[in-house]
Amino acid sequence: MTPERSDQPASPGPKDAVHVVPRMPEPDIAEFASESVIIFDTEGAVHYWNPASEALYGWPALTMIGRGIGHLSTRSENEREHWRMLLQEGTWQGVVSRRTPSGIHIAVDIRQYVRFAQDGTPRDVIEYGRQSLSDGAVPGADWHIPDRLMAASWEIDVSASDALIATIARLRDEAAAEAQLNARYKDLVKAARIVNVNERTMRLVGGNRGRDLMIGQPVSGFWPLESRATLGELIVDAMTGKTEDATYRRQMPSDGILRDPLVTVWRAETHGRIYAAVNGTVDDDRSYVYLRASEARYRKLVHHMPIALWQVDASHMGRIYNDIRASGVTDFGAYLDEHPDLVELAATTVQITDVNRAAVQLLGGASALDLMRPVGYLFTVNRRSLHNVMIGRFNGQANYEEITKVETLDGRVLDVRMSVTYPKVLAELDVTIFSFEDVTERMSMEAEIRQLQADFTHAARISTLGELTTSIAHEINQPLAAIVTNAETSLRWLSRDDPNVEKVKALTARIAASGRRASDIVQHIRGMASKRQPERVATDLNEIVQESLIFIRHEIESQSIGIRTNLARGLPSTMADRIQLQQVVVNLLINSVQAVEAHSAGKREICIDTHRTENGALAFTLRDTGPGIPPDDIDRIFEGFFTTKEAGMGIGLAICQSIIAEHGGSISASNHPGGGAQFRFVIPVEAPDGSA
Ligand code: ADP
C-alpha cells in the first residue's frame, strides 16, 4: 500500500448514499478528518480550514480564513502560476513547501481539486494535505493530531474472497433474506486480512500488541461484533461498485469503542484490497457495555502502570479444566503431578496477548514483541509456580500470589512477587493478568538483616557463656570428679584378694553415667557456642527450663539462691528453635541471679513457672527476690544497649525480645507486688508462619 494512504480519512460524501468522485467534503465530516482539508475560493483565499489543518500547519483556522494561499507558501511568486494552471486543469497533486508560524518549512503532500459550478466555471478549490513522507516523516508519528480528529484507518485484503463476494452479489440480486446475507457478510469479514492499520486503529483495538501483530490477522478479530455484517456489506459494495473511487459509508450504532462511528469503505489501487476509515469520538458513556467501552482507557492505564503486567489468554485451558472437573477430579494438584504434560501444554500454548512497558523493562526486552510468547518462559526457573497458578484457576480462585523466581531475557534470575488475577467465570473476555514485582533487592536485604541478627544473637550467646565459665567448669568437673573417685574405688575392690565383682560392676555403671553426663554438658555448651541457622523443631518448654538451669546451677548454689520450679505437666510441644529458647531462659536466669546477688537483704529465691494460657499458648514466668526494676527503666530495659550494670552490655533482654517475637510470642517485665522483678513470655504452640 502507499503509505500516504494509511491515514486516509473517511472520504467525504453524502451520508447515506453511494457517492462518486469528486469527493466533496461536507464541512462537518471534514472536521473529523485526519487529513488537512482546506477550501479556497477561486482567488486562492482560504474559505474553510479544518482542525487537521490546524494541527498540520500550526495556524489556527481563525487566523487563516480570508488569507491568501501565498501566506502559507514559501515561494509565493510560483504560487500564482500554479493557481492559474490548477484552475485550468481542475486537479493537481504533489509535494509543496509550506510555512508554519514558527518559521519552519514543512513538506506537504497535497491533492487539489477544483469544483465547478453548474455553468462550468470554477467555484472553489479543495485541498487535501498531509506531511510528506519524503520529508522523512513516518506516517502518523509526527502528526500531533488530537486522537478524536483522526480516523481509524484500515487497509484490508479481500483477494481470497472473490467467490464469496460473487455469491453475495448474486444473493442480493435474488433479494435473499437479511439473515442469510448477514451470515455471509460476517464470513467475508472473517476471511478478510489486515494489510495495515494506522495509529488510531492500533490504539483503539490493537492494544499494545502493535501493528506487527495485527497485520495478517483476520479483520474480525479486531472489528466490533455488532458491526461486522455492516463492514462486510460495505466491502461488497466497494468491490462490486462500478467506479473505482466510489466511497461507501454507513453510520453505525455506538460499538462501545467509538460513539456513532461512521465507516467509509473504498477500493484501493491494488487489486483485491480495500480501505476502511472509521470516524467518531471515543465513547465515554460508562454505562455502555462496560468492558469494551473502557478497553482503550484500560490499555492506556495498564501500559503506563509502574508494575510489570502480562495479559494472558488461557481460555482453552479453562475448557480443558472444565472437562477434567466433569470427570470427577477434585484434587487438581495431585492430578497435575500425575499429568506433568498438562503443565507443559499450558507452558507452550497459553499465549501472552499483551504486556506493558514495565514488563519489558523488568525482563530486559527490546520491545513488547520479545515477551509476546507462550507463558513458559516466565517459569523456566520455577516450573512449580506455573503448576500452582493452574491449581488456582482450577479451584476457581479470584487470585493467587507467591514469591518465585523469574529469568530475564539476558539470563539474570530475579526474585519476584507474582500475583495472578483470574478471569471471572462469566466474564466476556477470558483474560488472566499476571503481575511481577521485583523483590530481589528486598529479599537480599532481608537475608542480610537476618544474618546480622543471627550473628548478634550468636555473639550474645558466646558472651553469656563467657559469663558462665565458672559454672560450666564446675558442671563438667563434677562428673569428672565422680568418675575419678569411682574408678579409684573400683581399683581398690579389684585389687583385694577376693575381688568384689558386683561392686565393681555397679561402680563402672556409675562411671559410664558420669561420663555420659559430662558429654551431655559439653554437647549443650557446644550447641550454645555453635554458629548455626535457627531451626524449628518440636520442643518441650519444660525441658528447656531444666537444661537452662544446668548452666547456672553452680552460680545458684554458690550464691545460696533457692530455685523453686512449678512446671505444668502435659504441656504440648511448640515448634521452636531449642538453642534460642534456651538462650532466652538462661539470659533471664543470669539477670535474676545477678539481681538477687546485688540485693543483700531478705530471701534469696528465683521462682519459675510454666503453664498453658487460656487461649492455648505456652507461658513462662520467672520471678526473683532482687531489688526489682526502677519504674523509670521498665520501658527501656528491652532496648538494645540499655544497662544499669557496670560491666553490662545491655543486649541480653533485647535479644530475648527478638527471639520471642520471631517465635510469634511476646515478652514483658514487671515488678512483683511482693518485691523483685518478674519476667513473662508467651509463645504460641503453632509456629507463626504455620510452617515447621
Ligand atoms: P545487661 O544484663 O547486660 O545489663 P540486659 O539487657 O540483660 O543487659 O538487661 C538490661 C537491664 O535490665 C539491666 O541492666 C537491669 O537494669 C535490668 N534488669 C534485667 N533483669 C533484671 C532483674 N531481674 N531485676 C532487675 N533489673 C533487671
TrEMBL record:
InterPro entries cross-referenced by the UniProt entry: HATPase_C_sf, HATPase_dom, His_kinase_dom, HisK_dim/P_dom, HisK_dim/P_sf, PAS, PAS-like_dom_sf, PAS_4
The enzyme's E.C. designation: 2.7.13.3
PROSITE patterns documented for this protein: HIS_KIN, PAS
Sorted UniProt keywords: ATP-binding, Kinase, Nucleotide-binding, Phosphoprotein, Transferase, Two-component regulatory system
Single GO molecular function: ATP binding
Reactions it catalyzes: ATP + protein L-histidine = ADP + protein N-phospho-L-histidine
PAS domain ranges (all copies): 29-67
Protein name as it appears in the record: histidine kinase
Organism: Sphingopyxis fribergensis
